[in-house]
Amino acid sequence: MAIADGLYMALSFDRIVGSGEHAVCAPDQALCRRIRAEFREMPGLTLTLPQAARLFSIDCARCQRVLTILVEEGYLVNNGTTFTNAGNGRRSA
Predict the structure, then answer these.
(1) d(CA 73, CA 76)
(2) Which helix H or strand E contains 47, and what residues bound it?
(3) Rounded to the nearest 5°, which phi and psi values hold at 73?
(4) Is residue 10 a part of any domain in this protein?
(5) Contact by Cβ (8 Å): 15, 25
(6) 8 Å CB contact between 83 and 46
(7) 92: Cβ–Cβ under 8 A, 6 or more apart, which residues?
(8) Quick count: other Cβ atoms within 10 Å of Cβ 28?
(9) Overall domain count for the chain
(10) Which residue in 45, 69, 76 sits closest to 86, CA to CA?
(11) What backbone phi and psi angles, to 5 degrees, belong to 56?
(12) What is the domain range of residue 65?
């Protein structure tokens, strides 16, 4: 029973926030805030997925999931290769 109780507590910690295809679990909410802060503090920051995963010390799959959420929110933009702040003031030619 103690193992089952521990499993229940672990599962309840990862509560789901939001709805739809890209609902975010609570630990990813904190990661989203952290990534937003990094891009806000470094407005010209442009990262590939592997660079972002290394910078944020997370695996590529989780990084992809969180960056996709931020792109869908309109906070980041992705050109197919890199992620950058949507409001960084850069204009495409």
Answers:
(1) 8
(2) strand 46-48
(3) -75, -15
(4) no
(5) yes
(6) yes
(7) none
(8) 21
(9) 1
(10) 76
(11) -95, 5
(12) 24-85
Task: Give per-residue pLDDT as tens, 67-93.
Answer: 999 999 999 999 999 999 998 655 443
Nearest of 79, 68, 58 to residue 21 by alpha carbon: 68
d(CA 74, CA 35): 14
Q: Does residue 35 lie in a domain region?
A: yes
From the list 84, 35, 91, 75, the residue with the least C-alpha distance to 58 is 35
Torsion sign, CA atoms 45, 36, 84, 50:
positive
Does this model's pTM top 0.70? no
User: Both tokens of residue 56?
Assistant: 């944020």
Q: What is the mean pLDDT of the chain?
A: 76
Residue 46 lies in a domain: yes
